[in-house]
């Protein structure tokens, strides 16, 4: 049965009530004899005084409703028991529920409405009871039980038209793209159609070949009316079609395709189609062609650029020497130029495993490039490390660093006489 503030109301399903609190449907009884004292039923227990501190009691009583025969006493009876918290004595407090959903007027689907919340009376054992238990205690009700609310009317997302396709991101080649965009004019609201996450589209550009000017190979050095000495060599400049990438070497085509292109080769406007050269005469020194420029080498400490800029180098070597003129030839020619596009490297001495009394030592850069030739340790006093690769830290793998590192690792003496290139 559902209880309200005004008392019992409608009968409901049994499972809605606490099983442990279900009253007994039957009990033992005793039929009094004619000469016995007949007592009334026990009264309801009195209320335990609050707070439930364990020092108070409650009581109930029974009164005689029929006196006993002569000679038998029939006195009122009283029974007491201690008030125990959450057993027969309880504290009460209000509890407010969460807000309901926004309730609209009849037939309305959006707009202004009201949302409400309910007030419960909760016993100290966490059970909900009728509001009268809290009201009888005069507990303060300070909550607002309803408030206005709004249900947004559904508004679909509105987008602008697509913009025209942009120009191609590149002038030619295969990597170019064109894009178009649209913007959100009206964001969606409520249950309206949401805006798409993608407001930009792209597509490849129509394929357009790229053209550039490119040098051909240098001709052999020719000396006019002589077999050796100073001469001239030549090279051509061709129009090349390619796909726009640096990796494509291109294919030579008719020069008319490069008619509208500035006469530039690899960014250099100074076109050089001929240059001086030398055909060595017998007994002269002969230097090979210049090597490619090296990578930019920066000045670094602990892999940090010091900001001084870097240097690139190239070289060429003597490859023909007459023995009688050898002292007049340079060992090798070098050129250098400043640069700023390099990176910092680490350098380490690497060692192979010992084979008998010798092993190989070489200097390697952190990108795996071997900087110097190898050396052989031709003797040893003790075995250091296990077989296989062994890295020894060094700045630029100088012999001084090598000796200092190894001396610090084992107290070795000067190894300079042990290194044989």
UniProtKB/TrEMBL annotation:
Pfam families noted in UniProt: TSP1_spondin (PF19028), TSP_1 (PF00090)
Domain of life: Eukaryota
UniProt KW Aminoacyl-tRNA synthetase keyword: no
Keywords: Disulfide bond, Glycoprotein, Signal
Keyword rRNA-binding: no
Domain named Spondin-like TSP1: residues: 157-210, 285-344
SUPFAM superfamilies named among the record's database cross-references: TSP-1 type 1 repeat (SSF82895)
One annotated GO biological process: actin cytoskeleton organization
GO CC field: plasma membrane
Name under which the protein is recorded: Spondin-like TSP1 domain-containing protein
Protein's organism: Engystomops pustulosus
Source species taxonomy: Eukaryota, Metazoa, Chordata, Craniata, Vertebrata
């Amino acid at each position: 049965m559902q209880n309200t503030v005004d008392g019992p109301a409608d009968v409901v399903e049994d499972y809605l009530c606490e099983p442990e609190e279900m009253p007994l449907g039957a009990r033992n009884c005793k039929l009094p004899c004619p000469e016995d004292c007949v007592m009334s039923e026990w009264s309801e227990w009195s209320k335990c005084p609050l707070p439930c501190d364990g020092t108070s009691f409650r009581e109930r009583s029974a009164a005689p409703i029929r006196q006993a025969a002569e000679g038998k006493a029939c006195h009122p009876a009283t029974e007491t028991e201690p008030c125990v918290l959450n057993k027969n004595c309880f504290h009460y407090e209000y509890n407010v529920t969460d807000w309901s959903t926004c309730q609209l007027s009849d037939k309305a689907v959006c707009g202004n409405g009201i949302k409400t919340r309910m007030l419960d009376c909760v016993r100290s054992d966490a059970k909900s009871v009728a509001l009268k238990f809290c009201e009888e205690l005069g507990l303060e009700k300070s909550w607002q039980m309803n408030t206005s609310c709004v249900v947004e009317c559904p508004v679909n997302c509105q987008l602008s038209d697509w913009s025209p396709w942009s120009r191609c991101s590149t002038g030619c080649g295969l990597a170019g793209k064109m894009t178009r965009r649209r913007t959100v004019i009206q964001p969606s609201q409520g249950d309206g159609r949401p805006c798409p996450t993608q407001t930009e589209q792209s597509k490849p550009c129509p394929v357009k070949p790229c053209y550039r000017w490119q040098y051909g190979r240098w001709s052999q050095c020719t000396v006019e009316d002589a077999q050796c000495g100073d001469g001239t060599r030549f090279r051509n400049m061709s129009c090349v079609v390619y796909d726009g990438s640096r990796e494509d070497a291109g294919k030579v085509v008719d020069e008319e395709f490069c008619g509208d292109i500035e006469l530039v080769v690899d960014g250099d406007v100074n076109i050089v189609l001929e240059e001086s050269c030398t055909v060595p005469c017998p007994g002269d020194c002969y230097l090979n062609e210049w090597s490619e420029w090296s990578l930019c080498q920066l000045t670094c400490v602990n892999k940090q650029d010091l900001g001084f800029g870097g240097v690139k180098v190239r070289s060429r070597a003597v490859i023909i020497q007459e023995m009688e003129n050898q002292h007049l030839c340079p060992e090798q020619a070098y050129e250098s130029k400043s640069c700023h596009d390099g990176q910092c490297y680490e350098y380490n001495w690497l060692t192979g495993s010992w084979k008998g009394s010798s092993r190989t030592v070489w200097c390697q850069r952190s990108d795996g490039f071997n900087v110097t030739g190898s050396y052989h340790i031709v003797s040893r006093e003790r075995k250091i490390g296990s077989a296989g690769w062994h890295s020894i830290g060094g700045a630029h793998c100088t012999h001084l660093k090598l000796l200092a590192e190894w001396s610090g690792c084992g107290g070795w003496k000067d190894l300079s006489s042990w290194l044989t290139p």
